[in-house]
Write a structure and sequence with these properties.
The structure holds two protein chains of two kinds. By secondary structure, chain A is an alpha+beta fold. Chain A has nine helices and 21 strands. Classes of the chains: A alpha+beta, B mainly alpha.
């Protein structure tokens, strides 16, 4: 399953001009509000009709403006998860879940229904009306409703942005399960670096209606020239494995030949995780520093330097586990003689767990 | 006795209820269509349609009644045509129902239009992405969410139809047993000395019917909202 998109659409104040492929897995459209993310997802859904577009799933055309083809939204077989869950207020959770099947005059696949209800943990909510659900529960039901519409593609438009941090943490694992337990490609709109780090298989970075970078998530996130959300949100993502739980309360993660330490995780040894290293929490040193409180010091080599603004720079360092980004001052770059190929040490102050993989 | 209704009075009460019921029943589908068009579509002549719908609300009822007589009378352009299909309005109870329907129409359209406009189009979009066609969306999302407005509009229309006087008496006169509804019966009784008790009885009936209609609409709307949101 893969989705192929090419859209040109002129608005009064900005023009959207994008072309990309979304392979299997979860593709994040990553950018600020106004970058065109939501326009793309609405064009794919058929809720808007862009001036010029060619959109197809595995050769099945959803829109081809050159040939005058436009499939209306209800014939596209989609599951759209909105920012505001948009559950039907007059129907119970069960009827909301079955809405897609009834609309298509299709009998509900009991096995699949049971599986989705179990996966989302909404079995005890079936008889309730949406007004009796919490924000997190509503969004879980909305995910279930989209999945049970028998979609060939799932669209999610900032599905977590209306929730508080605790509810976000409640919903994120369900998106991971949908990504990993179904074959349905997912297009996910987000402006959150954390969500991208945690969920994305592929990242399409957008700015002012243009694609500025597209590719596998770890590559795009480690590219210091790509900052759709600004320099403060830059941070590399590494795949790591839980190696040991130490008696002093720390958990050791192994990544390549390097070890990272962080406060005890409730995760079994041997489990693979994604961690995010915010660039502003990484320092560089030419020699291995001693007498420093930081625990996470890894050896690497300068791969690229990108000046950002008047005084700061993002340095991309290749380590045995992958790329790490550090935000430093341009003065330090000059003083330390940092240049491509120079060996250095990265001192990582924050290691944030992004997800299980 | 004050509560001793004469057969003629019963006749007027029964006729009033029949006329109002038929009037509301037949204007409901038209009111729903007009409300939907006004709430959801943009078309040339929308303001004209809006004005036309509201005209009976602001015209003197006697003018509406006279226009009905001209158009739907047995020699009128529509009345003459319908006569061939043995549907006669002039000086029949059907004419009273037509007059009541036209007078109740703007109130029904207003109430239904307000509740249609309150239905979030985002819900209809969500239904479309789930595979629902336009008709299916209307039947399963828009219509159920509009039910409180439809109920309120229907009861309001019914109450208005019960009280209709000016257009009715102009169009179909006040023939006892044929077109004499409660309001025209009260008017007729008040023209004759010594009939105050009979008039008072019918006044009380009017108050009870109107009050009952309002209470019913309140209860129905509440139930509809409760059934809708589970709150």
């Amino acid at each position: 399953m893969s989705l192929s998109i090419s859209i040109q659409h002129a608005f009064a104040d900005f023009a959207l001009d994008v072309a990309f492929e979304a392979p299997k897995g979860l593709t994040v459209l990553y950018g600020r509000s106004g970058s065109g993310k939501s326009t793309i997802i609405n064009a794919v859904s058929g809720l808007i009709r862009p001036h010029r577009a060619k959109i197809s799933i595995d050769g099945q055309v959803l829109q081809d403006s050159a040939a005058g083809l436009f499939k209306s939204a209800h014939k596209r077989k989609l599951g759209y998860i909105f920012q505001d869950s948009r559950l039907f207020p007059h129907l119970t959770v069960a009827r909301n879940l079955d809405y897609g099947a009834r609309a298509a005059r299709r009998s509900v696949d009991a096995m699949q229904r049971a599986r989705v209800i179990e996966m989302l943990g909404i079995g005890n909510l079936l008889d309730r009306k949406p007004s009796a659900l919490s924000g997190g529960e509503k969004q879980r039901v909305a995910i279930g409703r989209a999945l049970l519409a028998d979609p060939q593609l799932i669209l999610a438009d900032e599905p977590l942005s209306s929730l508080d941090a605790a509810r976000k943490a409640e919903i994120l694992p369900y998106f991971e399960r949908v990504r990993d337990e179904t074959d349905i490609p997912i297009i996910y709109v987000s402006h959150s670096a954390n969500e991208v780090a945690r969920l994305a298989t592929t990242v399409i970075a957008l700015e002012n209606g243009k694609v500025i970078r597209k590719g596998p998530a770890l590559d795009v996130l480690a590219d210091p020239t790509v900052m759709p959300m600004g320099v403060s949100q830059v941070g590399a993502v590494l795949n790591v494995r839980v190696k040991a739980h130490h008696s002093d309360g720390l958990t050791e993660l192994s990544a390549g030949h390097d070890s990272y330490f962080l406060p005890r995780l409730q995760t079994d040894i041997g489990v693979n995780l994604r961690v995010r290293l915010p660039a502003s929490d990484v320092m560089l040193a030419l020699g291995r520093p001693s007498g420093l409180s930081a625990l996470n010091i890894v050896k690497g080599r300068v791969e690229a330097i990108q000046n950002t603004g008047a005084s700061s720079a993002i340095v991309k360092v290749s380590t045995s586990a992958g790329f790490v980004l550090a935000r430093v001052t341009q003065r330090s770059v000059t003083a330390m003689g940092l240049d491509l190929g120079v060996s250095c040490f990265a001192i990582v102050k924050t290691v944030a767990i992004a997800s299980d993989i | 006795m004050l509560l001793d209704f004469s057969p003629a009075e019963w006749q007027a009460i029964g006729l009033s209820i029949k006329v109002s019921f038929v009037a509301t029943l037949f204007s409901l589908p038209f009111a729903l269509s007009a409300a939907y068009a006004l709430a959801r579509w943009d078309f040339i002549g929308k303001q004209f349609l809006n004005g036309l719908v509201h005209l009976p609300l602001v015209l003197p009822p006697v003018v509406t009644g006279y226009l009905l007589l001209v158009v739907f009378g047995t020699r009128g352009p529509i009345g003459g045509f319908l006569q061939d299909w043995s549907l006669v309005f002039a000086f029949r109870w059907t004419g009273a129902a037509l007059a009541a329907a036209i007078m109740a129409f703007p109130l029904m359209v207003r109430a239904i239009r307000l509740s249609l406009e309150a239905v979030d189009p985002k819900l209809e979009q969500a239904a479309a992405t789930l595979g629902a066609s336009r008709v299916w969306i209307f039947l399963t999302i828009t219509l159920p969410l509009t039910v409180p407005g439809i109920l309120a509009g229907t009861v309001l229309g019914f109450a208005k139809a019960l009280g209709e006087f000016g257009a009715t008496i102009t169009f179909v006169s006040a023939i006892p047993g044929q077109t004499q509804t409660v309001p025209s019966a009260i008017y007729a009784l008040l023209q004759v000395p010594g009939q105050e008790n009979a008039a008072l009885r019918l006044v009380m009936v009017s108050v009870v019917l109107a009050m009952g209609a309002l209470l019913l609409s309140e209860v129905l709307a509440r139930r509809a909202i409760k059934g809708m949101t589970g709150a």
